[in-house]
Write a structure and sequence with these properties.
Elements: H1 18-25, H2 27-46, H3 52-79, H4 83-105, H5 107-123, E1 136-138, H6 140-149, E2 155-161, H7 166-170, H8 172-182, E3 187-193, E4 214-219, E5 222-227, H9 244-251, H10 253-261
Parallel strand pairs: 1-3, 2-3
Antiparallel strand pairs: 2-4, 4-5
Helix pairs in contact: 1-2, 2-4, 2-5, 3-4, 4-5
Protein name: Thioredoxin-related transmembrane protein 2
InterPro entries: Thioredoxin-like_sf (IPR036249)
Keywords: Membrane, Transmembrane
């Protein structure tokens, strides 16, 4: 089979306002927006027969919740380098504060929202970043052919991904953005979607539960470095913290770029 071209993939046509388009078309965002903003209607209906003192007490709690949410979002905005991770955490915090405020009104209202959030979690998933950057989308067989023929780049840095991995969704734009900076004739970037080829996970020594995403650097046809380690086991309710700095240091991308530029 002929190896895929290393030309930069043709970018998809983007809508004029991509974030607004995502909010209106992606079930994950749309359902969360509807659930969060429905609070105003629920509050109005629930507080019609409540005393003025209780209404003032509720307003104070709402102000406290908004201020606390603003502080948390500001901290995450500074620390988080990916929009997908920032949005995921922001929605999680907003849901937590909404449940807390609903408890002030009526615990039954809080249970209704909790049920709604569980349903949203079951029926929808946060969409990942859909750009490829300078990466080449490969199948396991195509990668095997490229490495066996050895007539392309000496180094191939491969991302093993799956859309079911929350860790990958949160960091889905990291690899694409790194490829735009470090891709050259000596170092190529490729992605393999193990969600489409789950049987290939064992070929790379990867578990689909807890080891996605995995990054492997091949030197010609030999695996040189990988992250996370093949013995890595994810802890319950935790996710891999993938960052550009971590990948750059682990795979020495700056060194590869300097070697290429010095030739």
């Amino acid at each position: 089979m002929e190896a895929p071209s290393q030309a930069t993939p043709t970018p998809r046509k983007q809508p004029p306002i991509p974030w607004l388009n995502s909010m209106a078309t992606e079930p994950f965002y749309l359902l969360h927006l509807l659930a969060l903003f429905s609070y105003f209607a629920a509050r109005t209906a629930a507080c019609q027969d409540l005393s003025t003192d209780f209404s003032h007490h509720l307003l104070r709690r709402e102000i406290q919740a908004v201020l606390a949410l603003s502080v948390l979002l500001a901290m995450k905005f500074v620390k988080e380098e990916n929009w997908e991770g920032f949005i995921a955490d922001g929605i999680f915090y907003a849901k937590g504060f909404l449940l807390a405020v609903c408890l002030v009104i009526d615990y039954r209202l809080s249970l209704c929202y909790l049920f709604a959030f569980v349903v949203i979690f079951v029926v929808s998933q946060q969409p990942p970043y859909d750009g490829l950057g300078s990466c080449t989308e490969l199948t396991p067989f195509q990668l095997e052919s490229i490495l066996a023929e050895g007539n392309t780049s000496r180094y191939w840095l491969i991302e093993l991904r799956a859309s079911t991995s929350l860790s990958w969704v949160r960091s889905s734009r990291t690899f694409a953005e790194l490829s735009n900076v470090y891709s050259n004739n000596n170092l190529s970037f490729g992605v393999i979607d193990l969600g489409r080829y789950p049987n290939a996970a064992s070929l790379f020594g990867v578990s689909l539960w807890g080891q996605i995403p995995t990054y492997i650097l091949f030197d010609k046809s030999v695996e040189a470095v990988r992250f996370p380690d093949i013995t890595f086991e994810a802890k319950p309710f935790s996710s891999l913290n993938i960052s550009k700095r971590l990948l750059c240091e682990h795979f020495e991308l700056d060194r590869h770029l300097v070697e290429y530029l010095s030739k």
